[in-house]
Fold these 3 entries.
Entry 1:
Amino acid sequence: MKKIALISHGCAKNLVDSELILGILTQNGYEITLDENETDIVIVNTCSFICDAERESISTILELVEQGKKVIVAGCLAQKHSKELKKEIPEIVGMVGATDFNKIVDVIKNIDKGYEVEVSEKPNYIYPEIVERQQITMGASSYIKIADGCHYRCGYCVIPYLRGDYHSRRMEDIISEAKKLVKKGVTEIILIAQDTTGYGIDLYKKPMLVELLKELNKIEDLGWIRFMYAYPTTLNDELINAIATLDKVVKYIDIPLQHSHPEMLKLMNRPSFDYRPMIENLRKQIPDVSIRTTFIVGYPGETEEYFEHLVQFVKDMKFDRVGVFTYSREKGTPSYNMKNRVPAKIAKERYRKLMEIQQDISLERNKSFVGKTIPCIIEAYSDDGEIVARSEFDAPEVDGIVSIKTDKIVTPGDIEQVKIIGATEYDLVGEI
């Protein structure tokens, strides 16, 4: 049986899909590797969310083709550009779409018979429950995908057209997966979906994230539960209360707001209301909560007045963590043909201005931790012997870390009480 390599690009949701692909290959008797030098067949699970992500995926494909590898392109790039890819990079030997990775074995079997394209015209993501994920990263934390696809049609977002409508997994399957991960030594479970707060709306006819959190909270030996990507209109009082009262649910909320001006939000097909009372309510109901958000600058129609509204909003709200993106014009999205486009130079200037403002806020916020003792999850040892950890107020990969100095022997996955002794714009320094 052939050995197959896999390279994964993109977000945590894509990482789970890559692990499912590896699970399918393992079930079918293939030997798998993450080192493309060990085999001539390489699957590249691609990202196509924005132009930069596409460029990164294409760069990897071209590099592998130049090395003479048999490249199978999987995921969002194949879903979005299958015809163009086939034409521009004819050396690709196979392709599977964003919701078609269950067909990967057929593509591999036919790899020497001719070009195989398995890309559904209408994507429909159904989680393959019979497949056991082969985890690429197995450490203190692990992601669980609770749903995929999306019912919303935000003006800038290509995801619904690549992944289809929203599909939730059954609660018992999610709980079962979480228990297996905890048995393997995972301390923190991170729930992901295009919109986690909409979980269950299709399956149970009402949002069921609160019930899911309550069930996960009962799992023995599980340390932390975190969920990403809340939607503004579904972050209700019941959910806020669950975050505040369930002891394993971290006091951290990731709620991508995208903008603050009501007219901009309308142009983006986003909920258009004043977000300030919602943020104030979150801080009132959950003391010490850490709020992460993201904003898009340079979206078509963003005037200087609208941008300054956003600047003031960021200054006033003092978010704990902020990600800023310049608008990426994606074919197939509602905004693609919009007029009043913002020049790239102005969009970049707005990006820099907003990031500089947030840097100051982030530094001030981090300095407030100095002298305090907070729980941190041990992640790894760095090359220079320092311990890399993370507080409950920071999600992996997107937020900050805590560098710890100690003589104590600690193990990845342990949750330790750490005294904070230093702070930078994004990271903390602590000691045990």
Entry 2:
Amino acid sequence: MAKTALLLIDFQNDYFSSYDGAKCALSGTEEAATQGAKLLAAFRTKGLPVVHVRHEFQTNDAPFFLPDSEGAKIYTSVAAISGEPVVLKHQINSFHDTDLKSILDKQCVENVVIVGAMTHMCIDAVTRAAKDYGYNCAIANDACATLGLEFNGVKVSAEHVQAAFMAALNFAYAHVASADELIKDLD
């Protein structure tokens, strides 16, 4: 059986409205983390690889995820435990200038299940890069969070941003399903 790893991307305090002082609260981050925690528990129970990724900007002039700040720390409900690698990134793509691929390859990972934030940025980038590297990708759509956007005066709700990106990724890059469905697939 091909080895499957869980990638938890940027579940960091600054994205959670329930975190006092959040600098970039997203829509539905708490709910996404709850679903991500279910997947995390399933992976841990089965002894499957888990990799946490967290973003830190390299300057204090950044809008969020400031270096060494509480806001840049991983949210407690999905935090790493001893033995689980935490990849520090400074780019949108979790593979760019990090050891993520090396960590996955050392564990002979062929499949990745992706959860986290922001759907339209880091989830999109890591999924497309993982597919380009040859990994089979799955995304737990209910374990990802984003926010509303605006372009040329057109406001797009977080719900529609989420749907558009999940639809695009499901088309050619990943199997998109609920956390519960992906947990069943582990059996």
Entry 3:
Amino acid sequence: MKKIALVSHGCPKNLVDSELILGILAQNGYGITLNEDESDIVIVNTCSFICDAERESIRSILELVDKGKKVIVTGCLAQKHPEELKKEIPELAGIIGTADFGGIVDVIKNIDKKFVSEVSEKPNYIYPENIERQQITMGASSYLKIAEGCSYRCGYCIIPYLRGDYHSRTIENIVAEAKKLVKKGVTEIILIAQDTTSYGIDIYKKPSLPKLLEELNKIEGLGWIRFMYAYPTHLDDELLDSVSKLDKVVKYVDIPLQHSHPEVLKLMNRPAFDYRPMIENIRKRIPDVSIRTAFIVGYPGETEEHFEHLCNFVRDMKFDRMGVFKYSREKGTPSYKLPNRVPAKIANQRYKKLMEIQQEISAERNKKFIGKTIPCIIECFADDGEIIARTQYDAPEIDGIVNIQTDKMVVPGDIEMVKITDASEYDLIGEI
């Protein structure tokens, strides 16, 4: 039986798909590895969210083809450019779309005979509940996909065209998977979807994230529950009260707002209203909350006045965590043909300015932790023996960390009480 390698690019949602692909292979008796040197067949699960992600995926494919590997391309790039991929890289062994990875075994069976392409013209991704995920990374945390696709059409985003409309999984299936993850030693479960706050609308006819959180909160042995990518119009009082009262749900709200000026929000096909009362309501209902957001600068039509509005909004709202992205013009998105494009030089300047504003805010907020003792999840050990941990106010890989000095024996996944002794702009220093 052939041993098959997998290379995964892109977001946590793509990571879960990679683990499902490995699950399908394992279920069909294939040996799997994450080291491409150990295999003649390599699956590359690609990202196509922005140009840089596409370039990274293509570079990975070409390197493997040059090494003489039989390469199967899956994921968003395969969905977006199946014909171009086949034409430009004729050495490819197969192409699988975002909703078609159940056909991976068919491609492998025919790999020595013919090229196979399975790409649905209109993807309709339904989570394969009968597949046991083979996890690529095992640590303190694990992502859990609660839905796939998106029914919104934000101006800058290609995802709905690559993944189809929103499909929720059932509460029963999500809880069952969460219990399996806890049995494997996972302490924190991170709920992901293109928009977690739309969860359940399609199958339960109403937003059902509060109910899901309630059921997950009952799982014995689970430490923390976190959900990412909230949408402004669904962050209602019921959901906020669930975050506040459920002891395992971290006091962290991730709500990518994308901009503050209503004119830019309209151009983005985003909810165009004053976000200030919503932010104030989050802080009122969850007093110790950490709010993360993200903004796009340089969107077509963004004027200097619009950008200053955004700067003032960030100064006033003092977000605990914030990411900034420069607009990336992607073919197939509604914004692709918009006039009044912002030059790259100006977008760069705006990016730097907004990040500098946030850096000051972040440093100021982090200093407030000095002297406090707070629960932290142990992540791993650094090469110098220092312990890397994270507070409940920080999501893995995108927010800050806590560097801990201690003589105490600790285990990754444990939640320890840590006294914070110092702080920088993004990270904390503590001791046990």
